[in-house]
TrEMBL record:
The protein's name: Two-component system response regulator
Domain (HTH LytTR-type): residue spans on this chain: 124-224
Residue positions where 4-aspartylphosphate is found in the record: 42
Organism: Phocaeicola vulgatus
InterPro entries from the UniProt entry: CheY-like_superfamily, LytR-like, LytTR_DNA-bd_dom, Sig_transdc_resp-reg_receiver
Length: 227
């Protein structure tokens, strides 16, 4: 439990809302939280095993089973689990499972809004100089956060687009499948990362720093796309 807690705390887009050693305690307290998006659930628990408990969880909550016993894998998918992690759990495996949950919620949100997934991922609208601008996502290189506003750096544009929005709000607008935060002041488009030089991402003459707190998430992405 402490290991998973540490993984959650080091992952920028996750927030721990509770942890429980008892299924009965979890049944009592989980409904108090307005939204529980992901639930890490051990199969072997006192009073009620994880498979039985999962049937009582809201279908809106994605369940990731954690266990030291591989023989439960098939049963876990019968209760519509999102993933199944065998102990000891590495941070790489943890992050891959969490990213599955993120992608599931993004697709669900688009479906609920009646928006085609490809269309929804095509562009964003931002306010700039009293105008509402449509920006194609595939043209964004990176976003730079300043004190009270952000700069959106776009391909083939001599000047960045300025907008009075926080980095956190901008990060929430962008699909995590395409963008990654590498520093408290920088979000980059994954597919635009072409050159890394001494711990920095290079965009032409600009060098984007990679901070220690975001380095591991970026490294996992790079490793998964390396040959």
């Amino acid at each position: 439990m402490e290991l998973l807690k540490s993984y959650v705390e080091k992952t920028s887009f996750l927030r721990l809302v509770g942890r429980y050693s008892s299924a009965v305690q979890a049944m009592t307290e989980i409904p108090l939280h307005e939204e529980v998006h992901v639930l890490f659930l051990d199969i072997q628990m006192p009073e009620l095993n994880g498979l039985e408990f999962s049937r009582m969880v809201s279908p809106e909550t994605r369940i990731i089973f954690t266990t030291a016993f591989g023989q439960y894998a098939l049963d876990s998918y019968k209760v519509n689990a999102l993933d199944y992690l065998l102990k000891p759990i590495s941070y790489v495996d943890f992050l891959q499972s969490v990213n599955k949950a993120v992608q599931w919620y993004e697709l669900k949100q688009k479906a609920d809004n009646g928006v085609d997934a490809d269309e929804a991922d095509d562009c964003i609208y931002v306010k700039s100089d009293y105008k509402l601008l449509r920006i194609a996502l595939d043209r964004i290189l990176y976003i730079e956060g300043l004190k009270d506003y952000i700069k959106i750096h776009v391909e083939d544009e001599p000047k960045a687009i300025l907008s009075l929005i926080s980095m956190k709000a901008m990060e929430e607008k962008l699909p995590s499948s395409r963008f990654i935060r590498v520093h408290r002041s920088f979000i980059v488009q994954k597919s635009k990362i072409k050159v890394l030089d001494r711990g920095r991402i290079v965009f032409g003459k600009e060098y984007i720093p990679i901070s220690d707190s975001y380095k591991q998430e970026l490294q996992i992405y790079l490793n998964s796309h390396s040959v």
